[in-house]
Design a protein that fits this description.
14 helices, 8-stranded mixed beta sheet, ATP-binding, Nucleotidyltransferase, domain 5, 6-stranded mixed beta sheet, 21% strand, magnesium, EC 2.7.2.1, 2 domains, 398 residues, alpha/beta, Aliphatic_acid_kinase_CS, acetate kinase activity
Length: 398
């Protein structure tokens, strides 16, 4: 029996999902938290059960050993030989990686080098890759990059209008993110619409705590809202999204708590967005509760959020010169009914209409009316499945 593990490793966490392949059956999933800290927590979910244990896990190598021991302990594998592949999610692939890649020494070094672009994500991913390589050196090990899907963007879309030496010398450009999610939902949208992906123009809206919008032309990303880092784009849960860059030196001059550019960037990443404006929460459920309570700051945060989303979606209609469908995905995109309704209401000029009987919690599929000129779809994302599929692809090539 062939089993593949999809891994999403952070600086102090390791999220995983075990698949039976090629059937694409999820056998188990889990999360190891607080790696490198006392009282680490390892949770395994399988067959409707959940098991957690608290122990000290000093590094990612130990985390991988705990993961594998849990698979044996719960009878999810009989021995390590059943695991034939592992796929690792990596946020930043820079210009090195235009597609997923088999792990080797050079690939690991490049992932670590690109930590400059994703300092919160790439180091943990590299540690997870090394850990699996040490323990299971003979399986098919693949890295899947959030940025690789966006490497099809034309140069005029990914370059910033600053002196070109900064691109030549330092590779400062738009890289995007959430590419695995955008790739998955675009493929699923084509199935749902019953049309070949290479004939479609799609706008995919990944709206979770992080938000990115992508213009997909015939199956390829031609523009996306996140930039050099995931800070760019529409307003997000705790991130500001696009702002006037002159705000950074201005705040350093005015606010004694912000001494460096790094201080401002941290504030823009962790204390802004819905959280910063509402002064209450980054969670849309809390925002909706605040709106019902007529809290002014919460209402304002929501209105800014909707405004920025409409603007980005609108500009991608221009990039594509029209679109066949708009796809909502990720936490808020899949579940925030009112948000979807308010976005579409502000884009009615494009000929989009939502059926209120379909725009309900838990509905997956086409939520637009028969008269809607642009289809509006709700498709749950599945980045882990895309990772497992990429591993399967490389297995066949070996």
């Amino acid at each position: 029996m062939s089993k593949t593990i999809a891994i999403n490793a952070g600086s102090s966490s390791l999220k995983w999902q075990l698949y039976q392949m090629p059937e694409e059956e999820v056998l188990a999933k889990g999360l190891i938290e607080r790696i490198g800290l006392n009282d680490s927590i390892s949770t395994v979910k399988y067959n409707g059960k959940s098991d957690s244990q608290t122990l000290d896990i000093p590094d990612h190598t130990m985390a991988v050993r705990i993961l594998l021991e849990d698979l044996l302990k719960h009878g999810l594998i009989k021995d390590y030989q059943e695991i034939t592949g592992v796929g690792h999610r990596v946020v930043a692939g820079g210009e090195y990686f235009k597609e997923s890649a088999l792990v080797n020494d050079k690939v690991i070094e490049q992932v670590e080098e690109l930590s400059l672009l994703a300092p919160l994500h790439n180091p943990g991913a590299a540690a997870g890759i090394r850990a699996f390589r040490d323990i299971l050196p003979d399986i098919t090990s693949v890295v899947v990059f959030d940025t690789s899907f966006h490497t099809t963007m034309p140069k005029y879309a990914y370059l910033y209008p600053i002196p070109q030496k900064y691109y030549r010398d330092y590779k400062v450009r738009k890289y995007g993110a959430h590419g695995t999610s955008h790739r998955y939902v675009a493929q699923e949208a084509a199935k749902m619409l019953g049309r070949p992906l290479n004939e479609l123009k799609l706008i995919t809206a990944h709206i979770g705590n992080g938000v990115s919008i992508t213009a997909n032309y015939h199956g390829e990303s031609v523009d996306t809202s996140m930039g050099l880092t995931p800070l760019a784009g529409p307003m997000m849960g705790t991130r500001s999204g696009d702002i006037d860059p002159a705000i950074i030196p201005f705040l350093i001059q005015q606010d004694p708590d912000l001494e460096t550019a790094a201080d401002v960037v941290e504030m823009l990443n962790k204390k802004s967005g819905l959280m910063g404006v509402s002064e209450k929460s980054s969670d849309m459920r809390d925002i909706e509760a605040g709106i019902e309570a007529h809290d002014k700051n919460t209402v304002l945060a929501y209105n800014i959020f909707i405004d920025r989303l409409k603007k980005f979606i609108g500009q991608y209609f221009a990039v594509l010169n029209g679109a066949d469908a708009l796809v909502f995905t990720a936490g808020m995109g899949e579940n925030a009914i009112g948000m979807r309704q308010d976005i579409i209401a502000g884009l009615s000029w494009f000929g989009m209409e939502i059926d209120p009987e379909k725009n309900v919690f838990g509905y997956v599929g086409d939520i637009s009316t028969p008269n809607s000129k642009v289809r509006v779809l709700v498709i749950p994302t599945d980045e882990e499945l895309m990772i497992a599929r990429d591993v399967e692809h490389f297995k066949k090539m070996r």
